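Lay summary

Proteins are chains of building blocks that fold into shapes. Our project writes down both the chain and a compact code for its shape. Here are two examples, one after the other.
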Amino acid sequence: MRDGKHLTSKSREGRRVSTLHISNALLLRLCSLRYLPSQKLSEAALAEEFGVSRTPIRQVLQQLAPFRLVKSRNGVGTVVTEVYNDQVWELLGIRKHMALLMSEMVDPSCFPRAKQRISELEKVAVAGSEERNIQQYATIGITIQKIILEAISSSEFRRLWEECYYRSCRTFYSIVEFDWVLSTRLQLKEIRDLTGVFDSGDPTELAKLCNHAIGEWIEFARRIYTAQE
């Protein structure tokens, strides 16, 4: 019997989704601060929402652990971690320097596909630039990183790049609303610049662009934090 809160085996099977879908959904919620620091994440509630057992939920939360977005507390369960800006600045500096090594770590044969995806993303970004939707803004930002990640041929470099991004991105998505016009302008500029880089097929240009884009985001974040002091 269903009372609106419990799913039958048949209805649960109909809603079953992949762990990748669950991981992407939780990453977006964590990065955009839909889940706030210190908030407890209920495995039971998430399992109910996604129509799965608690096992894949637990697996996904464990997979997210290296990004330092969640952690397990004895007797409490999984909670969202705090954001420490001093660590974020350090991580951003590391990413900025890492970007200069990217020319040796990417596969240019992936650039045509990357160009196609980033061009499609530009249409989404332009359409959403007036909506002030943080969830969509974060989705676009995460997608940009995934397109770049798919062009990286070194698995170890890819892992480090991804980890540094997710460990630092909450700082940006928490402040974009303070200057929405400049935030969307920076994001659109990054997308359009990436289109040109992928079209050129030059890994060195990708490295320079990533280094410059990270520098622009650092400057933006520092300006916002200074204005709030």
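And here is the second example, written the same way.
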Amino acid sequence: MRPQKEIFIPYILLIISSLSLLCVFYLNATEYARIKDLLRTSILQHRELEREISSSMLLLCAEEASKRTEDRQMGPTQPHVRRQISCRHMQDEYARIFKAKHVNEVKVHEIEESLQALHGINLVFLLLLPVTFAVWRTVVYIRLVRERKKLYIDSLTGVYNRRYLERTVMEYEPDYLVKLDLDDFKQINDTHGHLVGDAILISFTEQLRKSLRETDIIIRFGGDEFIVLLYCIEFNDARTLVERLRYISRHSIVAKNDQRIALPTFSVGLAKYEVSVENTIQRADASLYKVKQAGKNGFSAAN
């Protein structure tokens, strides 16, 4: 299959979107760190200023207390009143600065929480994009599997159809190819109807699955003809396996009115895979034709 350019477009868009989101995430993280450092620096400077004012005020109040003691000894004077008012004014200023500091700390805390929330949202978006893409690719894959199943699976029997034959042989060449043809299947359709004929084909493929190995591939070649691809097997083992398949004819199905209809016998042609799938099918078909001429319900292997 030739690659289609459209397949790569979602991946290119994913890479571009991821890089863009990473850049935004990096810029936001950098800005978050910068603002946080600025806020911490501002808080430290504010606390340092508060300590300086507190120290200055303590010294001033101690000085004022000393001077008030001297003034009491010398008698009440106007400067004493001014110094007392100045000390109270300093205390009021300190209280105002402390209140402003508390308000600023609350605001700083709110800004830090907002920045942290923004950081978390960016992280969620960064993770959401690949997760969304993975979900989308999974849905597309499931849809492709369903479409492929419709393309390569026989709708009646559930085994592979003729389209799958060439594709699978191109990838994995089998050791042997078996061709089966149900004997007198047309008479069953004419006598019991096509619905009974379909039921026989379904039951036959089910029994065929049970009799074969997991590595063997069943293909409905057309109508009442089937092909089985045998892998990793020698001729004697393949012959024994085919002989065992003939026991399928002992089973039966239940039709309308509880009527039991035995599965028909079948003729088998076996050929070693050589040259191409067409050549191998022709040799298996020739062996099958010999069985039909000899009276059906038999087995023949191509030279």
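What can we say about the second shape? The two ends are 35 Å apart (CA to CA).
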